[in-house]
Amino acid sequence: MNSSKGIPEKNYGYGVRHIQMLCMTLNLMALFIARSSLGIAILAMTDMKKRNDPEIIVYEWDKRTQGVILSSFFWGYAVMQIPGGLLAKRYGGKPIVLFALLSNAVICVLLPSIVHFGGWQIVCACRVLMGMTQACLLPSTITLFGKWLPVHEVTSYSGIVYGGIYRFNFT
Question: Which Pfam families match (predicted)?
Fold first, then answer.
């Protein structure tokens, strides 16, 4: 505070909101990588050239089955867009983002075992769940931006966060 005029001084530099935005970008990047990683993994999982190798399990999924598995994420994603916004409005953004991160992490860690013991149908169900939880992310982050950021910074920071998702999603 400027003591002579009673005007608050501007603080420049990095603050808590900058760290929050970095964490939000990293969270969203991790979930977008989880979303797209099966598109690469499914190529190795269905490589018929490796079926004679006893150490590698190859799944005999035709192109249609592979397409169903990969698209199943977006079934859940499409269904939960509007309910995700309502959940974020009612419960706030933090618990929704936390639940999405944890549930997607558990599914990603368990997915190799799920494929082996459950088959492609269970993989589809897991991908639908991943889509449902990730559909809640964008409304939740918008809710958090509204609470964490000054009004004049919301568009700048949301552009940085959402731009970072696609910029660093190399998978």
Answer: MFS_1 (PF07690)
